Amino acid sequence: MDRPLLSVLRGNRSASPPIWLMRQAGRYLPEYRAVRARAGAFLDLCYNPELATEVTLQPIRRYGFDGAIIFSDILVVPHALGQKVWFEEGEGPKLEALTGPDDIARLSLAAIAEKLAPVYAAISATRAALPAETTLLGFCGAPFTLACYMIEGGGSKEFHKVKQWAYGHPDSFGRLIDLLVLACIEHLDRQAGAGADAVQIFDSWAGILPEEQLFKWSVQPMQAIAAGLRARRPDVPVIAFPRAVGPAALMYRRLPEFAALSIDTGIGAHWAAQELQPHVVVQGNLDPIMLVTGGEAMEREVRRILDKLGHGAYVFNLGHGVVPQTPPDNVARLVDIVRNWRG
């Protein structure tokens, strides 16, 4: 069966680019909010295969996206390694912060398959329920982004703790990164084995690093994950999403382990078409607030991005995830514009 998104991720061009959206299953959909209310804690939803499958399928039923991304969270990996993780309503994720090498030593790869079995069960159930032409995406957080949450104990504005650890104690920080590389390879491999056609690695906090550290702690670990997965699953394309790295996106463009490079709103579509797209499939990069705004402003911007990037190997997406205040009708209009655009 031809899967348009999977075909483009393998380097083929399409007259009308495939489309999916980061965080397309989320609070902007009333059907998601209804399931979320039944689920209890956020991680309970992630670890309930029936409910996780349902919310993954909701935007496919409503919009017919070319890709479905399994409903889960990047922090299931540190949770499976043995770190305490929970979510507080209105505040986001909380973790029992790592404070030194002794804390790293207490983390273990041994239970990943068992602890994350519900995620793989949800992938299998979702693949069975999806239309045959829809690509199913798995994902993980990149090691540096995971380390940020694990050391800061949650989100942060300045990332003092993780930066001081990485800069001042690179050996022990490197051990944490190496452990996370192995954990992510295992997690993505099992997602692919359960039915994921392709995967995305989210490095949400890559942009806080200076150039040399960016290469060491973002580019190289992501490349190692992609290479490790390729050794096990050579037919599963990997999308890299290093958020907010600006022109340093050039570091990721020629690495053969990455099938596609997802770009945020800080990278211009014209620049991406000239500097990135000749070397790698490009994905992105509509501002999520344009999707909230809708109307003529959104339509002009969508067509501008399509006119710049749609002539090459390209996947339409946002520069980051759908935000909760997004009107569902605006998403329907977005899909209609992309479906009817012809290069």
List the helices and strands and how they pair.
Blueprint: H1 4-9, H2 30-39, H3 42-46, H4 49-63, E1 67-69, H5 76-81, E2 85-88, E3 92-95, H6 101-105, H7 112-115, H8 117-129, E4 135-141, H9 143-152, H10 160-168, H11 170-194, E5 198-203, H12 211-232, E6 238-242, E7 260-262, H13 269-275, E8 281-286, H14 288-293, H15 295-309, E9 314-318, H16 328-340
Parallel strand pairs: 1-4, 4-5, 5-6, 6-7, 7-8, 8-9
Antiparallel strand pairs: 2-3
Descriptive account of the structure:
- Helices cover 50% and strands 13% of the residues.
- It is α/β, with parallel strands linked by helices and 343 residues long.
- Helix 10 (160-168) crosses helix 11 (170-194) and helix 15 (295-309) packs parallel to helix 16.
- The chain starts with a helix and ends with a helix.
- The model has no long low-confidence stretch (mean pLDDT 97).
